Structures are given as C-alpha cells and as structure tokens.
C-alpha cells in the first residue's frame, strides 16, 4: 500500500487504529475449539467486528509460529481474509545478513503479501535494505520500544545521542517516509516530540496503549504530524475484550469503537 | 544439551564445526526435485555426510519460513533426523516483548526441541530472559556480527565502550556460560582477544568463515579458551560444495572434513 492510500483510509474512517492479532489458543473463547481452525475462526470474527474501525491489522508472528505448520496456515487464511484497503503488518522483528533478510522479505511480502514487516536494527544497513527493495512495501524499524528492556541499550548515549536516535537518523539514509516507519512505544510519551523532530514525515507504529499502560493523549499530542503519522496499536485490550463469551465479538467491537472514537477526535 | 556434554563432543570428534543448513530450493541439486520433500532430502544427505565431522547444526530459519507451512514441515523432519548428541541451533534472530519472546522460546525449544536459538539484543532484558528460563536450553545473543552493517550501530561508542561490549557485559547479568553464548563474526578476527577478555568462559558462535571471507587462524588463536569456547560455522561453503551432482554428498563430506581437519589441529 502507498502512503497516500494509508492517509486516505485514515481520513475516511476517522481512525488510525491498528488491531494487533496476538491470537493465543489459551485465551480464545472455548467454543471455537470445536472448529477445524480455531485461530482463524477467532481472527475472522475479530476482523468482522473491527474492520470498519481500524486502518491496520498486525498479526504477531510468534503466536502463529509457536503452533508449527498449522499456525502458518491460520496466518495465511487470516491475511487472505483481511480486506485489501486495510494495511497489514507482520510483527516479526526480523533482521539478519543480506541474503537471509532477503528470504525473510520474500516470506512476508511475497508468500503472505503483507504491506509491512517490523525489523530489528542491530545488524545495520544490509539487514534492513533487502526489505526496502520491494515496491509499495514497508519496513517498520524498531526505534524506542514499549518494554522495560528498552532502557538497557536503546538509551545508551554516545556523546548526547542515544542509540535510538542514531537508529532513526541513520536509517533515513536507507529509506524514505514512503517505505519506512518506526516503532515508538506509547510508554515513552515524553519522547514523542523529540522523536517527531528527528523524523518529521515518517509514520510511527505505537504499541503499548492498553495492556502495557501507555499514555494515549501524550503520544498523540506530541507525536501527530499533518498527515496523522501515527498508527496506534492495541492487541489484548481489544481482541480479548469478550472473554469466553460465544458472542465475544460484541465486546470486541465495543472496545475497538471506544478507542476509534477517541482517536477520531484528534483528526 | 549441557555445556559439559558439548565440550565432551568437541573432544571426542576433534571438531568444533557447526554446519549451517541454509537450504535454498534454487541451489540444491536438481535431481532432488523429484522427491516429495526436496529440502529434507537434501538436508538428510548433508547430515549423513557430515555428522561425524561436526558438533552442531544450524538451520537458518528464514530459508524454511519462506516456503510457508511446507518449509516448516521440512524443518521439523530435519531436526528429528539430527542425532541427539549433536547440538542444534535455530538461527532465527528473534527478540520481542516478554510475552512474545516466550512464544518464540516455546516454538524453538518445545515445538522443535532445538538446543539453542539466536536472539537479537536491541529490546533488552525482557526480550532475552524468557529464552533463558528453559532448562538445558541456550540463548546465542548477537554480539559483533559478521556483516558490513555491524559497523552501523554495534561499534557506536559510549565513552570508550562500543555497543557490542555493553551487550556482552550487561547480558552476563541475565545468563551464565551454561546457557548463554554470543555471535561474534569471523570477519573481525582482531576483536576476538578483546571479546574473549569480556566473556572468558562463554562459547562464541562464529559465522563468516567461508563465503563471507573471515580469517580462521586469527579467530581461533585469539578466541579459543581452555574448553575450546568456539563453534565455527560454515554454511554455503560446505552444503553447496557438490554443485548439481547426483552424488554431491561426496564433495560435502570432503569440504567438511577439510575444515574439521584444520580445527582439529587447534585442539
């Protein structure tokens, strides 16, 4: 998907919500276990309940991988089920030497036809560049992540420059606002103004609202740009809102609508 | 596998060779395409030709993932085929927030029963710790990688401390020489003495010999410790040594034997 189309969808839906599909067999309503593919059945219902409220879906690849080949099949069916006008993100945190990153890019962009994949920056340019060679496909590079461990290395200072700043500045030599976004965690709302200043036009994918306790208002007021420039992700807070209920999708829809409503007020 | 068993195997086989199973459908001998699972047939023959010469196998997960559920099945059969006394490494470069890293750990340690998985350090302690909670299983953390891009961030200095040194020192608070190794690329032979000084007892997994042009003698003379402490990986240089030949395994065996012979002289 092109950047202009993503912005069009945001304005159309009055939403910059991304729904994270962290689908865990231990947490989905138990009645779904009678179906042949419970993971896909769950995702299908979540997608039906949220597709008018969000502009992106982000399956967390770990959850599908942990189920072996069957999980891979559930993922494939899920991606095929998502409407074409919704941006799809493989949350995979990949990154390796050039010939290997190229294989990962083929997996997510050709085999599955995702729009974007999250990539870890530690191995530098040749681990990221192979993903940027695909037309209308995106790298979402880890910048400042939402977890506690983000303090271990991402904030290490070289002179007055923290590592995440080096990552954000250096990587702008490799990609553009048309194919490169950054992961910036909502648990660091105070950093958003500064990060926005480093990357004025780039979209940020923002995890950490919801289960991780991030501050939505701080994020949006500091991080929004003229094109919106933000995708706010919520996973567990939305998809498990219905508990073990057989019509869990009502609560899923309500939870997504609440967040979309809040987001809409900023547009 | 326990550290003591790995050291026992190294002394028994006079080898610290790790064979990388970067199995690419476009590079395997064409006659294998007549089999139902060409990838597994190739790996099986490579394993038969090298199992007495190496102490570890390292499937590169990207190559299996890129084939979808079928690739995942080939990987499963490959792991089941590797003899139990050989150390197995999932070269996956994973790492995410805690609940997600736990899922990746389950994938590689429980679903596949690998001994070790390579992990990227960028997200810090809670992205690495879940892998360290499995008994007799290992994290192999990226330290100083073999690729050109390793210069982009890994050598960024904070005071006089490069990032890779911070990673190696800090992570020793999370794991021990019994469950934590480091990836140190053979393309930096000059750094091995210094890295060995930072992590005296830890094993290093060393890619970059062979196709990437690393210096074996420099690595071993600077990096070996009293327990050996090194696993030298070769992938393309061994597994594709036989070209398109129907008895390619003869050349695979010869290539592995040559490298094992060299390694044996250091033990």
> What percent of residues of chain A are in strands?
15-25%
H/E element sequence of chain A: HEHEHHEHEHEHEEHEHEHEHH
Chains forming the largest contact: A-B, 57 and 57 residues
**Any idea of the CATH class of chain A?**
Alpha Beta
Q: How can the largest sheet of chain A be summarized?
A: 8 strands, parallel, barrel
What gross morphology of chain A would you assign?
A: globular
Q: How many DSSP E strands of chain A?
A: 10
- Cα(first) to Cα(last) distance of chain A is 21 Å
On the 0-100 scale, what is the average pLDDT of chain A? Answer: 96
The CATH topology label of chain A is TIM Barrel
Q: Detail the poorly predicted runs of chain A.
A: none
The helix/strand class of chain A is alpha/beta
CATH architecture of chain A: Alpha-Beta Barrel
Going by CATH, what is the homologous superfamily of chain A? Answer: Aldolase class I
DSSP helical segment count of chain A: 12
Indicate the percent of residues in helices of chain A: 40-55%
The multimeric state of the shown protein is homodimer
């Amino acid at each position: 998907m092109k950047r202009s189309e993503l912005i069009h969808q945001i304005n159309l839906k009055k939403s910059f919500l991304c729904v994270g599909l962290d689908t865990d067999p231990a947490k989905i309503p138990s009645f779904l276990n009678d179906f042949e593919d419970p993971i896909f059945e769950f995702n299908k219902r979540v997608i039906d309940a949220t597709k008018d409220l969000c502009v992106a879906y982000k399956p967390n690849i770990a959850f599908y991988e942990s189920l072996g080949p069957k999980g891979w099949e559930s993922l494939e069916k899920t991606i095929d089920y998502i409407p074409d006008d919704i941006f799809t993100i493989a949350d995979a945190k990949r990154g390796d030497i050039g010939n290997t990153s190229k294989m990962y890019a083929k997996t997510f962009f050709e085999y599955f036809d995702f729009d974007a994949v999250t990539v870890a920056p530690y191995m530098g340019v040749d681990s990221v560049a192979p993903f940027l060679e695909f037309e209308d496909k995106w790298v979402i590079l880890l910048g400042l992540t939402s977890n506690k461990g983000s303090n271990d290395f991402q904030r290490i200072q070289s002179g007055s420059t923290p590592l995440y700043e080096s990552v954000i500045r250096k990587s702008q030599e490799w990609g553009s606002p048309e194919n490169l976004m950054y992961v910036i965690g909502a648990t660091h709302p105070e950093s958003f103004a500064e990060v926005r200043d480093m990357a004025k036009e780039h979209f940020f994918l923002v995890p950490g609202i919801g289960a991780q306790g991030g501050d939505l208002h701080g994020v949006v007021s500091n991080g929004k740009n003229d094109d919106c420039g933000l995708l706010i992700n919520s996973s567990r807070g939305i998809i498990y809102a219905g508990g073990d209920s057989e019509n869990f999708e009502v609560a899923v829809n309500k939870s997504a609508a609440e967040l979309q409503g809040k987001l809409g007020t900023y547009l």
